[in-house]
Write a structure and sequence with these properties.
Layout: H1 11-23, H2 28-48, H3 61-69, H4 75-80, H5 85-104, H6 114-143
Helix pairs in contact: 1-2
């Protein structure tokens, strides 16, 4: 595999590369390769679309961060994919129906106060604790540790 040496690499650019590599859990060499791959892929994308890299769209920071966390090589390409309006409308309609059905669900049990809920939690915790203690005592008595 060929080696690449870059002379007079700007200190501030190196610091940014080092930070980005740490965020992506990569070595500086791995991050450099990833950055070059991204740029070359971006250039190919724009060339195939009949545009230039200068036509690049602005990707929101949260989209770029999510893409980088997912280790997407071409975060800008994913940002360009737009779902058809029919798919979006179908999702909205389904969500509306689900929320409508959920609003019809009513609680048929007794009205519980915060004190009732706290007591239920306390009883459950004590019951589990007692169960564990009883199991340990049974195990110890079976071994003959308890007299």
């Amino acid at each position: 595999m060929p080696a690449l040496q870059v002379r007079d690499f700007p200190d501030d650019l190196y610091a940014q590369l080092k930070t980005l590599a740490a965020q992506n859990h990569r070595s500086i060499a791995q991050q450099t390769v990833a950055c070059v791959e991204n740029e070359l892929a971006r250039q190919r994308f724009h060339a195939s679309a009949g545009g230039t890299a200068e036509d690049d769209i602005e990707v929101p920071p949260n989209v770029r961060a999510a893409a980088e966390r997912a280790r997407v090589v071409e975060p800008w390409a994913a940002a360009l994919e737009v779902e058809p309006e029919e798919v979006i409308q179908a999702r909205r309609e389904r969500r509306r129906r689900v929320l409508e059905e959920a609003s019809k669900i009513t609680w048929k049990g007794p009205e519980l106060t915060p004190d009732d809920i706290a007591e239920m939690i306390r009883e459950d915790r004590e019951g589990r604790t007692n169960h564990v203690i009883e199991s340990v005592l049974r195990a110890e008595s079976a071994r003959g540790d308890v007299q």
